[in-house]
Amino acid sequence: MSTEKLYYSDPYLKSFEAKILKIGVEDGENYIVLDQTAFYPEGGGQPWDTGKIKGENFEVEVYKVLEVGGEIRHYVKSVEDFSEGATVLGEINWERRILHMQHHTASHIVWGAIRRVVGDVKVAGSGIHADRARIEVFVGKGRKISHEQLEEIEWLANKIIWEDRKVKTYFLPFEEALRKFPELEVKKAVKEVRVVEIEDWDVNFCGGTHVARTGEVLAIRILRRERAGEGVDRLMITAGKTAIDMFWKERLDVENIRKMLNEKNVLKAVQNLLDSKNKLEEKVMSLEAEIQIEKLLGKAEQHGDLKILVTCVDIPKKSMEAVAKRAVQKYPNLVVLIGRVNGGAAVIGAAGEKAIDKGINIGDIINKVSKILGGGGGGQLNFAKGGGPRGDMLEEALENGKKLILEKIS
């Protein structure tokens, strides 16, 4: 029961007349099959269209469209007013469709930019939504797309939009498509392959709907890059009105910041604020470290000329580092080995100059302590850090570290 796919011959078609070929129900869901349709069924990473189907005195909402066993099924809540052979009017939700078209074309534009900037990479997955698109790229083990490359990809993609290049879609017989585009992959053998070609930029086999010219995409923003698996980067992008709205909001945000700071050079003003913030944080951390040092020194044990401080603490890891470093600067005869539990365990070690002269290698000690915790670590003679997932072993690990220190100085 074949349905003519009007969305391929004219993706801009918003309404159409059709005859009902079949009325069905499956798993409690009603559907109708038409002799022709402009409703796009879910496929190729693109969601289905929604909209309405109208009769002479009624209309129903089309909430889902799927291609099942060669049938394009339009799912509706009720079919009581329908009859096979009747003529109906279909109206697609155009706002939803055009966003899908923009984002699907945008993903092809970005893919062309990725190949030019990153080099020999492969598509690992994709997905289209009304407000964003997902592109997964296999870049290779140990590699990732850098921030600088993302900027270049975004700039190139928007350049293709500004140039308003033609987007062609056409069908080719399967064997001819493979001969003409040997670099492209086909998941399974089919009678015909649909080609989407952006003029002098990108060619792909794709069954989705696309705009006719790149300028209709309006703009592209790369929202973020994230790791999707071993050697796979996922780029989340947005296009069309959503991207324009983001540009506009960011422009207003910058203007508001300029007014708040009363400064023409926003970047310089923000950098000055960050510098001041970092200096204040350093001062606060230094003061907190001094307070913690005086509290913890009461737990230190005297062994000959050296003092050994081995204990559990309940302070952030960053503060642990500051305490250990500052303590051995202040007291050169001190050895510090402290740890905290937070699910797993973190350990920090530091040794003053006199302790190092006695043969203490805190990096080696932290490495051995971390192994007891099921992890690893290490560092220099004077400072090291490590840890592991076995938080329940922290006290035993610290006690072992203390023994190693005493063996060195005995």
Sum up the structure in keywords.
410 residues; alpha+beta; Elongation Factor Tu (Ef-tu), domain 3; Threonyl-tRNA Synthetase, Chain A, domain 2; Diaminopimelate Epimerase, Chain A, domain 1; 6-stranded antiparallel β-barrel; 6-stranded mixed β-sheet; 21 strands; elongated
Structure overview:
The chain is an alpha+beta fold and 410 residues long. The chain folds into 3 domains: 4-92, Beta Barrel (Elongation Factor Tu (Ef-tu), domain 3), CATH 2.40.30; 98-252, Threonyl-trna Synthetase, Chain A, domain 2 (Threonyl-tRNA Synthetase, Chain A, domain 2); 298-409, Roll (Diaminopimelate Epimerase, Chain A, domain 1). It contains 10 helices and 21 strands. Strands 2-3-7-6-5-8 form a 6-stranded antiparallel beta barrel. Strands 16-17-18-19-21-20 form a 6-stranded mixed sheet, with helices on both faces. A hairpin with a 2-residue loop joins strand 16 (301-303) and strand 17 (306-312). Helix 2 (94-118) packs across helix 3 (147-162) and helix 6 packs across helix 7 (317-330). The mean pLDDT is 89.
